Amino acid sequence: MSQPTIQRVLVVYDDAESRASAAEALAGVGLDVIACHPSDDVLAAAEQHAPDAILIDVLLPDQGTQRVVSALRTLARFAAIPIVYDTASLTPHTPAPREALAALAVFPDLFDPVTRSTTTAYVWQRWAGERAAATGA
């Protein structure tokens, strides 16, 4: 059995510039990107495009992050999908949602141009390794 891979990522940001930057960064490391605003039907986009992973802004307005992730987790297809949270606002006083929302990782600045490709690769490789270990592959 081969290790699972990440090829398509659903990106959810309310800020257009952040959404474009995220999409560009992920496309730059060879991933197929579906970019979505949280007011769009994120569930429909996920079902239509079948992403392998999700990148979401940790601080979407009106508890949007929790709402989107909880809704995705109720669907069998996305119950265990790897989710990475990104935020420019993560400080020692910001509650980290990793455990509460079953995140694979939380990054304070995933799109730093110096580290983005290695950071992205690390996250997906870590996920693949954890999946392989869990399934005995």
> How many β strands by DSSP?
5
Strand order within the widest sheet? 2-1-3-4-5
Mean pLDDT: 76
**Globular, elongated, flat, extended or rod-shaped: what is the shape?**
globular
N to C succession of SSEs: EHEHEHEEH
Query: What share of the residues does DSSP label as strand, in percent?
Result: 15-25%
Describe this protein with a few key phrases.
137 residues; alpha/beta; 5-stranded parallel β-sheet; 5 strands; 16% strand; globular
Plain-language structure description:
With 137 residues, this protein is an alpha/beta fold. The chain contains four helices and five strands. The longest helix is centred in the C-terminal third of the chain and has 20 residues, at 116-135. The protein starts with 7 loop residues before the first strand and ends with a helix. The mean pLDDT is 76.
Quick recap of the structure?
The protein is an alpha/beta fold and 137 residues long. Helices cover 37% and strands 16% of the residues.
Helices and strands in order:
Layout: E1 8-12, H1 16-28, E2 32-36, H2 42-49, E3 53-57, H3 64-73, E4 83-86, E5 105-107, H4 116-135
Parallel strand pairs: 1-2, 1-3, 3-4, 4-5
